[in-house]
Give the backbone structure.
Amino acid sequence: MTVHDILKMGDARLLRVAQPVAAFDTDALHLLVTDLLDTMRAANGAGLAAPQIGVDLQVVIFGSNARNPRYPDRPLVPPTVLVNPVITPLSEATEDDWEGCLSVPGMRGIVPRWSHIRYTGFDQYGDPIDRVAEGFHARVVQHECDHLWGKLYPMRMTDMGKFGFTEVLFPDLAAYADD
Ligand code: NI
């Protein structure tokens, strides 16, 4: 188990389209998932994508059984390992809400996302995942999978007037302002 450094915006490795995973239930994939979990927990992340630790593969993790101190008022999202994901919007409806990212530390911005999605893919054992999600759950999935297409949330923003420092926007979250 290893807590990795998280790449920050400006690093070209965050802008790559990640490669699909070709083999499941391998030692290498299990080690990657363990490292992602250790790194996400150490940073109090809501999710983490392999490219954020410099690994060029389509693997994301998100969710938790415990409430996240960075997002104390958000609903729980089931702990998930998602490999080779595909996201399909279930309607054209979008909604705006605040997002942060461990690769954009100390900042938050308002990002439009699809309200209702279906997401499919596999877990690390190769078992299929096929879920419908809405709201915060749908947002987290879209944010994490965007890392696999080389997109960071500021690239999805439509109003840069709603982008700022966490410690200014949300003083109550100042203890986590270094995220
Ligand atoms: Ni992120």
Observations:
- DSSP finds three helices and eight strands in the chain.
- Strands lie at 47-49, 59-62, 80-89, 94-99, 107-114, 116-122, 128-134, 163-165.
- Residues 12-66+77-176 form a domain with the Peptide Deformylase fold (CATH 3.90.45.10).
